Amino acid sequence: MLCGPRPFEVGGALASGGQSGFRKFATGLQALGNPDADFRVARISRAALLAGRSRELNRKLLAWLGLVVFSSGSAFAEEAKSRIRPLAASEWTPDVAAILGGTRESVAALEGAERRPEDRPKTLNILKTIAHHERLLGPFLAFATVLGRDGALSRRDSEMLALRTSWNARSEFEWGHHAEYARVAGLSPSEIEQIVVGPEASAWSVEDRVLLRAADQLFADQQISDDVWDALALRYSEAQLVEIPFVVGQYTMLSMVANATGVELEEGYDPLPEE
Asked: Does domain 89-261 have CATH number 3.40.50.300?
């Protein structure tokens, strides 16, 4: 049972703006004294912020607020393991079996020749979880295949966006698989490590830094600032510019599915890095 201010009261205090609202919010988090409650309050307050005052104030506060949300995220996700079991092959309808059977080639292409066939999961756990919703499975995979294999962006750029989004969402499942895909797409082990640091890491070129900033802005406030957009437009075609928010949105969504339903990362993949 929660003690202290109700979540909506705390969120409203922060959304009202100013240092007073910020202090009330911080006090509310301390009064709650519960990591899961902190996570819920932060999420509600973040939504309130986005409807609030100036965008610049929102960004500054969200940068701080992200620390609260993400610091509770890993513990929160751990509690959610195995909420929905992956659908066993013996339970697949003929249509589901045909759809999921076709995913193995796609995953093998993304993972390249480095991973032996016997080391690959026959079907990804997240797809066996989505398979509980049979009508969703086929259309989702058609959409995902376009972004994952047939997109306008280079594989390297797409995997940079996917990895940064997986990190921002603290999704171990998505991180583990996209770290593998990113290596095949040309990112070095040190670059994958620097994804965690973000756009300010010294390893990035100017172009890479802009792309990672776009990923962070889209994840934080569902928008790209004018300066970042203008820099992207110097490098990317209109089709690629359209695809950038689609990629970030796709892996935000899949991270939500993996975290909320408790999809477990299969053995042999990189775990989510330590904070």
From this structure: no
